[in-house]
Recover the amino acids of this structure.
């Protein structure tokens, strides 16, 4: 099941490989300086942008979901520092009550931030915890998680790298989304 998650991530990364913010046909020195100071491409991996937390003892189907986690958006800003780039990410993460939610108001999730090279090889990966407090009277709530990373460039331009985010999926969640195609 973990292999399925890795396969989904690899497919999403392959799709990102053609994406870029800047054209490689830039010719003016001002455009080249802009490219050199750019951020790596930053994206939420759509196959890993949702997760489910099941109620204890509940079936692994939509009626058994206590909470959903949604990795909604990410914004990035960068500062070049020699042969590295300092990246500040603001990841928007939403928690939503599912049909099996029973009074709980705190949702603990795990997501990852990975840096990939031009060939989609994972150069670094960090798993991060996030807690979302959902008020008793609310169906959903969200947080903006601020992450700062220093990404060594190793002689590459920032545009040759990707930063990807997604939920760390358990085998049961992978199977749930495979079987029910979302929520």
């Amino acid at each position: 099941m973990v292999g399925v998650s890795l396969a989904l991530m690899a497919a999403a990364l392959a799709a990102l490989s053609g994406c870029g913010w800047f054209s490689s046909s830039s010719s003016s020195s001002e455009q080249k300086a802009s490219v050199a100071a750019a951020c790596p491409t930053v994206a939420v991996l759509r196959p890993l942008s949702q997760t489910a937390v099941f109620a204890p003892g509940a079936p692994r189907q939509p009626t058994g979901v206590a909470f959903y986690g949604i990795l909604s958006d990410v914004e990035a800003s960068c500062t070049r520092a020699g042969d590295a780039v300092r990246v500040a990410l603001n990841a928007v993460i939403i928690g939503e009550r599912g049909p099996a939610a029973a009074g709980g108001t705190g949702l603990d999730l795990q997501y990852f931030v990975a840096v990939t090279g031009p060939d989609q090889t994972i150069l670094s990966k960090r798993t991060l915890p996030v807690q979302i407090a959902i008020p008793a009277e609310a169906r959903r709530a969200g947080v903006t998680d601020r992450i700062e990373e220093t990404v060594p460039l190793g002689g590459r331009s920032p545009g040759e790298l990707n930063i990807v985010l997604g939920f760390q999926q358990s085998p049961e969640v992978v199977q749930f989304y495979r079987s029910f195609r979302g929520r």
Remarks:
- The chain is about 20% helix and 45% strand.
- Helices lie at 2-16, 29-36, 171-180.
